[in-house]
User: Which sequence fits this backbone?
């Protein structure tokens, strides 16, 4: 796979860039005191966090509340308390489509491919605000409809080639292997042109060569103005690739900082890394 | 009754119920909404169209209207009157869509099983309202002053008996020729089993339609069945009668509905509908306002059911609330599932299968005191077929259809992966 | 003589609720544990009612020889047992097979719809569509006139005997007794509640929640006092008067349904089988890993649910004095409404939902003139109203 397979950079990258880096280091996401309870069990206990542009890793032991936090950020759960802002826009308690339209898109930990639709259709679904998504436009089929569908198909093919899914485009997504489903999940999220992507364990089950490729791709995308918040269990992977690391423990943020700093933090070692193992 | 007349009435039935089924397929097959209240929109389409098109102050009618739309435009001649009727049908479709909007807003947020039961409940309530409120649509007495579009024009005769016979006969034979051509093409594309089934079924039907009547009725019957569009008894010189016209209208409406749904499904819009059926969280996570789409699919499907209701009214010539029992919805579900959920061709096949069994078994001679038993046995059979199909062939006879958004070709290398 | 009013409508509503509850108990069991939104439940009710008819009044069924009539109660018991056998057939022949194929909820809905078509038309095929009655003793309704006067409450009971209206009793309660009785009822109820409540700790599993126990104690106190503390009439010059009609059917239906609810609850909460059932309802795969024989649990669920459905059918047929092939399907909507309202995972919830639906149907029809054909509609409006506020039902999908 050569460099030319890399999809073109984000169409409105410059514009987004200026927005993302307008204040140079202005946080993308500001999370204040987010709390979520499930029938008396506190899953999130006042999470305070700011996410800056770039790659941020989110780690923590099982049950720390990482996925619940993702669900609250993307509107799949309504937080009981607290506030979430995306670029200074309050998105607390908004519906998932609204939040996605605002530029924050997530992947699911257990891939949720649309099993009876083809891989290609799974990808074509993703781009936002397609002209043909309106009923009348789908009946009339003007020039815009055709042109946009052509463009979307090209982009989908490109990204499928990058994720090594191009030979599977016409297969039903349900027939993919576990690793391929993960890739489809990421590809779909990227096709929406988000400002920030929340990746929930995107690399579990992906072969190491491809894993490296995806990581370098993510770094390229960061150059182009995308940001990522990444849940991952592979600590080395987080430490090697993230600019900042957030550690969660028992529903709250334990610490944040650059990888080296976090790695040597006593509390983190205590809570997560299992004492003398690291 | 000649076999041709039976076939015409059966085909009209199948066309109308296929249109009804295609509306259901849009909701259930493509979008995944279990609307057990689908028949309510059939009823609304029928009633609103009839009331909009029938004359005011009809005898024996004490409900709202009528509004006599065809009469208003009849100054423009028969076509004006037809235009008035079409406006009435549009009114019926819009009414069905609006009611489904009102039903959908509270119920579409519910779990799928709760949606099924509330939709069934609301449909039952709507039928009760129509039945009990005489001021609305005449209550249980129904409406028998249904406006039949272009009724006065028929039978249409184009000249002498021979000319009529030649013109309509040629049309009839053209239809047979096209059917034959289509069957051959389908046959060629089938696998071994499909070839076997078609190879047995088609000759059997041909024998039943052509040979058996000839044996009993001679050449006269054969001629009548072959030149099926030509009715020798219609008018002094023969011609095409009203029943045959209704069939053509129904087939045209089915064609229109089919085209529209296909267009809807094979588009980015249709992709979203199907993604909702598969897992609604995914399109939501990708920024699609799925609620709007569900609502629109419900309204469009209901409007198609409303159009079917309008045709039903002119075909039967009389409408009453008891024609719109919840079982009609269940028949449509059976037809959709047997033919192939999420396959519009399958809906037509399933509907033909269903109504073929239902109306075909009328030819079985049973003493009249056993007519209830016969009807019950038919429905037991249908219930059984439903369960067996779901177990052994859950995708139905045809399976889910393929999707394609045809685009003008370009000179790009990778054209193979166009879906 | 006074006319029937709100109080009578309430009594009717409770009975309607009890009949719906009979169906709702079985439906909630299937819904919760087998995870089938069973649209065939209404027709299982019909089948049960006709099962009893086979033994009670075989002369009415065309293809059967008239081999004599079993007493109603015996026929009902046989009918319920046979319906249980049919329940096993549904599970073994249909639903187990679909469960093994991991059929989704929509498929289960349609499968149960297919079964509903088969069952209803089997009845039509075998029996025809005519109205049939059980052979039972005539039940005489006693009308109680309640008159609120200056000095208290006067009750007159009348019966229609051989066409004549006969007064069978006249008594009353002075105000002091009424006040004292109500206070006693509140006290007894609260005492029971407090007594059970004190013992509660985190691990207590209540067979009957203290609140329900307390309420039952209060009602029992009022009834006992009403029956035994009958004093002289307090005059007939009434300020408010109302009449309720009661007969042995009302009492029996209420008693049978409450007993069924109680027994079901005991089974679910105290027996090993019940624990297995609840574990299966929570998570079938996990229950299987822990050694629960899920197939056996599901079989029992279908048998029990079919028996409960038959019970509801027999009670309905007896109460309405006729059986039709559509009787069960007509009950299906209110039963579903009750189950969704009450939450699908508790017998008490199902009965509570059924009572809300039953009361809203009969009281609603009484309060809104000319609405008698909208009984089911009223129940549905309530359900949709609740779902608008809480889309997952009052108790949600626990």
Assistant:
């Amino acid at each position: 796979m050569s460099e030319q397979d890399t999809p073109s950079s984000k169409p409105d990258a410059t514009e987004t860039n200026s927005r993302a880096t307008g204040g140079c280091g202005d946080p993308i996401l500001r999370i204040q005191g987010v709390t979520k309870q499930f029938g008396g069990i506190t899953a999130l206990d006042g999470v305070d966090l700011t996410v800056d542009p770039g790659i941020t890793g989110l780690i923590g032991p099982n049950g720390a509340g990482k996925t619940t936090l993702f669900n609250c950020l993307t509107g799949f759960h309504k937080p009981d308390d607290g506030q979430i802002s995306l670029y200074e826009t309050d998105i607390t308690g908004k519906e998932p489509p609204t939040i996605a339209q605002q530029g924050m898109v997530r992947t699911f930990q257990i891939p949720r491919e649309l099993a009876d639709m083809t891989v290609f259709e799974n990808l074509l679904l993703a781009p936002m605000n397609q002209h043909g998504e309106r009923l009348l436009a789908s009946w009339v089929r003007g020039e815009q409809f055709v042109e946009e569908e052509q463009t979307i198909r090209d982009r989908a093919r490109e990204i499928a080639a990058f994720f090594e899914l191009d030979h599977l485009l016409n297969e039903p997504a349900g027939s993919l292997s576990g690793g391929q489903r993960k890739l489809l999940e990421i590809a779909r999220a990227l096709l929406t042109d988000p400002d920030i992507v929340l990746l929930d364990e995107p690399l579990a089950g992906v072969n190491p060569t491809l894993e490296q490729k995806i990581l370098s791709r993510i770094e390229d995308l960061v150059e182009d103005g995308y940001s990522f918040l990444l849940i991952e269990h592979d600590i080395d992977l987080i430490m090697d690739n993230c600019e900042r690391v957030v550690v969660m423990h028992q529903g709250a943020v334990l610490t944040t900082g650059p990888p080296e700093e976090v790695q040597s933090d006593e509390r983190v070692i205590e809570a997560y890394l299992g004492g003398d193992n690291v | 009754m000649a076999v041709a007349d039976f076939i015409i009435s059966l085909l009209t039935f199948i066309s109308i119920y296929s249109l009804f089924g295609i509306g259901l397929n849009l909701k259930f097959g493509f979008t995944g909404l279990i609307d057990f209240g689908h028949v309510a929109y059939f009823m609304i389409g029928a009633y609103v169209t009839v009331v909009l098109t029938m004359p005011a102050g009809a005898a024996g009618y004490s409900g709202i209207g009528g509004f006599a739309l065809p009469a208003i435009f009849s100054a423009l001649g028969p076509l004006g009157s037809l235009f008035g009727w079409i406006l009435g049908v549009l009114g019926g479709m819009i009414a069905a869509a609006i009611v489904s909007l009102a039903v959908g807003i509270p119920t579409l947020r519910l779990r799928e099983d709760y949606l099924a039961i509330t939709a069934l409940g609301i449909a039952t309530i709507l039928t009760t309202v129509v039945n009990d409120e005489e001021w609305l649509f005449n209550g249980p007495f129904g409406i028998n002053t249904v406006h039949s579009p272009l009724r006065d024009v028929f039978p249409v005769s184009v000249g002498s008996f021979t000319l009529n016979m030649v013109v309509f006969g040629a049309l009839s034979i053209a239809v047979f020729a096209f059917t034959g051509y289509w069957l051959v093409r389908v046959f060629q594309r089938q696998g071994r089993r499909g070839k076997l089934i078609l190879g047995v079924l088609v000759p059997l039907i041909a024998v039943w339609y052509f040979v058996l009547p000839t044996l009993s009725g001679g050449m006269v019957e054969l001629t009548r069945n072959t030149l099926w569009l030509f009715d020798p008894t219609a008018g002094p010189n023969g011609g095409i009668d009203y029943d045959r016209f209704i069939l053509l209208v129904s087939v045209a409406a089915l064609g229109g509905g089919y085209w529209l749904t296909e267009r809807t499904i094979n588009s980015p819009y249709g992709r979203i509908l199907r993604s909702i059926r598969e897992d609604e969280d995914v399109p939501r996570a990708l920024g699609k306002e799925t609620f709007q789409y569900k609502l629109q699919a419900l309204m469009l499907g209901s409007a198609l059911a409303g159009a079917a209701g309008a045709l039903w009214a002119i075909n039967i010539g009389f409408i009453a609330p008891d024609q719109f029992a919840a079982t009609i919805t269940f028949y449509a579900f059976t037809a959709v599932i047997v033919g192939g959920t999420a396959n519009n061709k399958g809906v037509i096949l399933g509907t033909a299968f269903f109504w073929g069994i239902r109306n075909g078994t009328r030819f079985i001679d049973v003493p009249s005191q056993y007519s209830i038993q016969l009807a019950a046995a038919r429905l037991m059979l249908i219930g059984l077929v439903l369960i067996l199909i779901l177990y052994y062939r859950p995708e139905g006879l045809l399976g889910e259809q393929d999707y394609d958004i045809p685009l003008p070709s370009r000179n790009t290398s990778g054209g193979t992966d166009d879906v | 003589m006074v006319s029937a009013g709100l109080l009578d409508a309430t009594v009717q509503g409770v009975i309607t609720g009890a009949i719906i509850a009979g169906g709702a108990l079985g439906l909630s069991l299937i819904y919760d544990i087998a995870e089938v939104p069973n649209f065939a439940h209404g027709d299982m009710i019909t089948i049960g009612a006709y099962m009893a008819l086979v033994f009670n009044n075989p002369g009415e069924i065309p293809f059967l020889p008239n081999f004599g009539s079993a007493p109603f109660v015996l026929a009902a018991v046989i009918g319920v047992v046979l319906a249980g056998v049919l329940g096993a057939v549904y599970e073994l022949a249909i639903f187990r097979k679909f469960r093994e194929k991991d059929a989704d909820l929509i498929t289960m809905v349609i499968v149960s719809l297919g079964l509903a078509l088969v069952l209803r038309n089997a009845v039509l095929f075998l029996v025809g569509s005519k109205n049939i009655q059980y052979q039972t003793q005539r039940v005489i309704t006693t009308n109680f006139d309640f008159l609120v006067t200056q000095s208290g409450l006067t009750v007159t009971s009348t019966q229609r005997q051989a066409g004549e209206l006969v007064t069978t009793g006249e008594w009353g309660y002075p105000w002091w007794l009424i006040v004292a009785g109500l206070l006693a009822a509140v006290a007894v109820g609260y005492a029971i509640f407090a007594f059970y409540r004190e013992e509660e700790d985190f691990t207590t599993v209540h067979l009957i929640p203290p609140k329900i126990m307390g309420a039952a104690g209060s009602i029992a106190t009022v009834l006992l006092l009403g029956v035994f503390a009958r004093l002289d009439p307090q005059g007939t010059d009434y300020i408010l008067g109302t009449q309720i009609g009661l007969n042995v059917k009302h009492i029996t239906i209420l008693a049978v349904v409450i007993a069924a609810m109680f027994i079901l609850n005991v089974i679910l909460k105290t027996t090993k089988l019940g624990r297995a059932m609840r574990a299966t309802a929570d998570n079938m795969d996990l229950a299987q890993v822990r050694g629960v024989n899920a197939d056996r649990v599901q079989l029992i669920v279908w048998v029990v649910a079919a028996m409960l459905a038959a019970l509801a059918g027999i009670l309905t047929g007896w109460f309405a004095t006729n059986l039709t092939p559509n009787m069960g399907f007509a009950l299906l909507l209110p039963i579903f409404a009750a189950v969704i309202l009450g939450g699908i995972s508790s017998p008490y919830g199902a009965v509570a939902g059924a009572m809300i639906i039953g009361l809203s149907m009969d009281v609603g029809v009484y309060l809104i003139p000319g609405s008698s054909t909208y009984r089911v509609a009223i129940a549905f409006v309530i359900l949709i109203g609740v779902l608008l506020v809480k889309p997952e039902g009052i108790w949600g999908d626990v």
Notes: Strands of chain C lie at 142-148, 152-161, 164-174, 240-246.
